[in-house]
């Protein structure tokens, strides 16, 4: 049962067969294709569009196909072009010509749209699970290191001291939005297109709602032309994946930086690091580098999918077959990246001596100095100027702020008193005690809220 060539006088040229066949990759849709066919056949029987006994024979035959697929015994054939024709041909081998009744009231155009929607819905479920896994790894790591301080950076220059846990919880927040974005694709993919036919709808009294219900869809598509043309739900996944990978890439970049000798903040466990084929001393953070690198291909897949859709006239065009490989690749990349990053993060050890040293150095307490003067009544702009002068002075004396004596401070403002000597990294962090701030109490609360949200999410 080759794809119908009823009006064509010659067999397909071999080069064309190779060029147009999609079975090498769309075999991945097989479970959805068969499930869709079973639901369609049952409905055809119930609606008396085909005899009930034929529907039953088809459903039984498809059960056999399902078992072959599950056990890896299904004989895929390139000359049958795609997964839809492969399944139907195999069904005919099992049950004979009655298999030809399965395609009543259906086209490969609405069939492939159905398969893709089912695939995206599953992909979303797995992607969200992987996002949650990475969130869990980050939150537990934060909880285990809740006393570690690092410099908070702006412009990649040391800014103000923060808790490492607070920094990591920033990624928890990004990933929360990523999970939301994935869920939104689920909602938009969750609309059932069968019954749209090739483009115009169907002349048979199909019970579209019954098929939607059996396949677990929330609704049926409202316009047959849109239903066979639309791949927005694929683009939605690519966008969600692109943004989620961007977040992974930023995290990965920081892990790479932090594991350099220059930062020396963290070390991956040996099981999550690689060596160099040339330099015996090397321990490289390849997992993080690849997470950063693979973000590029996920962006590439988004661009491929957007470009594919641009300028396509309604409705179905064979171009749409090209929607599959980029999507499959992005789903695999997202799942792999999130899962391995979660493991790699759990393996990290922190060099608390280095992080504390960095958090206290480079005049990161200069803002606290200004805030101290503000509390004594000085306008902030003026206080900013005084603190800047103190820093200049300390640099000229080759001293840190902590090395200065009260008399030295008082050269710059009479408002300085003993209190200035108790400005410290820990006091600075503890003072950011409002919602969203880095004070230990706030971070503790954020960790508890995150843990609860992750427990409730499953
Ligand atoms: N392999 C095709 C695809 O992925 C299936 C739909 C084919 N439809 C058609 N009219 N040729 O898009």
Would you write up a description of this structure?
It is a single chain. The chain is mostly helical. It has three domains: 91 residues, Fumarase C, Chain B, domain 1, CATH 1.10.275.10; 249 residues, Fumarase C, Chain A, domain 2, CATH 1.20.200; 58 residues, Orthogonal Bundle (Ribonucleotide Reductase Protein R1, domain 1). 60% of the residues lie in helices and 5% in strands. It contains 18 helices and six strands. Helix 8 links the parallel strand 3 and strand 4. Helix 6 runs parallel beside helix 10 and helix 14 packs across helix 15. The longest helix is centred in the N-terminal third of the chain and has 37 residues. The chain is elongated, with a radius of gyration of 31 Å. The mean pLDDT is 96. Bound molecules: arginine. The site of arginine has 10 residues, from helix 6.
Q: Class of the largest domain in CATH? A: Mainly Alpha
| C-alpha termini separation | 45 Å
Strand percentage: under 5%
According to CATH, the homologous superfamily of the largest domain is Fumarase/aspartase (Central domain)
- Tell me the number of structural domains: 3
- The total count of strands amounts to 6
Looking at the structure, the CATH topology of the largest domain is Fumarase C, Chain A, domain 2
Biggest sheet details: 2 strands, antiparallel
Number of helices: 18
Task: Name the ligand types.
Answer: arginine
- Form type: elongated
- Per CATH, the architecture of the largest domain is Up-down Bundle
- The pLDDT mean sits at 96
How big is the Rg?
A: 31 Å
- Helix fraction, binned, reads 55-70%
Uncertain spans:
none
The helix-strand sequence is: HHHHHHEEHEHEHHEHHEHHHHHH
Strand order of the largest sheet: 1-2
Structural class: mainly alpha
């Amino acid at each position: 049962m080759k794809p119908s060539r009823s009006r064509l006088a010659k067999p397909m040229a071999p080069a064309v067969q190779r060029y147009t066949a999609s079975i090498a990759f769309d075999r991945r849709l097989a479970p959805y294709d068969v499930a869709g066919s079973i639901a369609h056949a049952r409905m055809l029987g119930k609606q008396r569009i085909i005899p009930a006994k034929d529907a039953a024979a088809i459903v039984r035959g498809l059960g056999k196909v399902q078992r072959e697929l599950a056990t890896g015994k299904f004989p895929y054939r390139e000359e049958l072009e795609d997964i839809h024709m492969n399944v139907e041909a195999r069904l005919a081998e099992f049950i004979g010509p009655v298999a030809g009744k399965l395609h009543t009231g259906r086209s490969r155009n609405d069939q492939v749209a159905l398969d893709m929607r089912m695939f995206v819905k599953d992909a979303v479920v797995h992607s969200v699970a992987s996002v949650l896994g990475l969130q869990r790894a980050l939150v537990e790591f934060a909880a285990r290191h809740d006393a570690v301080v690092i410099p908070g950076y702006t412009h990649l220059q040391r800014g103000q001291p923060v808790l490492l846990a607070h920094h990591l919880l920033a990624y928890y927040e990004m990933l929360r939005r990523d999970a939301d974005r994935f869920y939104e694709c689920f909602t938009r993919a969750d609309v059932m297109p069968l019954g749209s036919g090739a483009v115009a709808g169907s002349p048979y009294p199909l019970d579209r709602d019954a098929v939607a219900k059996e396949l677990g869809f929330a609704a049926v598509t409202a316009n047959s032309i849109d239903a066979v043309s639309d791949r927005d739900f694929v683009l939605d996944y690519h966008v969600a994946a692109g943004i989620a990978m961007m977040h992974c890439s930023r995290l990965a970049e920081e892990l790479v930086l932090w594991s350099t000798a220059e930062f020396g903040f963290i070390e991956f466990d040996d099981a999550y690091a690689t060596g160099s084929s040339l330099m015996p001393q090397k321990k490289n953070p390849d997992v993080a580098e690849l997470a950063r690198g693979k973000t590029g291909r996920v962006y590439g897949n988004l661009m491929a999918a957007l470009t594919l859709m641009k300028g396509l006239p309604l409705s179905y065009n064979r171009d749409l077959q090209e929607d599959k490989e980029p999507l499959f690749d992005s789903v695999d990349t997202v799942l792999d990246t999130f899962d391995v990053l979660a493991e790699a993060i759990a393996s990290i050890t922190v060099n608390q001596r280095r992080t504390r040293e960095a958090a206290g150095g480079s005049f990161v307490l200069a803002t606290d100095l200004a805030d101290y003067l503000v509390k004594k009544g000085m306008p902030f702009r003026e206080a900013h100027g005084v603190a800047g002068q103190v820093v200049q002075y300390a640099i000229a004396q080759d001293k840190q702020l902590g090395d200065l004596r009260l008399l030295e401070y008082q050269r710059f403002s009479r408002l300085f008193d003993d209190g200035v000597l108790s400005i410290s990294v820990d006091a600075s962090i503890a003072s950011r005690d409002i919602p969203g701030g880095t004070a230990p109490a706030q971070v503790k609360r954020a960790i508890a809220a995150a843990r609860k949200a992750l427990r409730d999410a499953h």
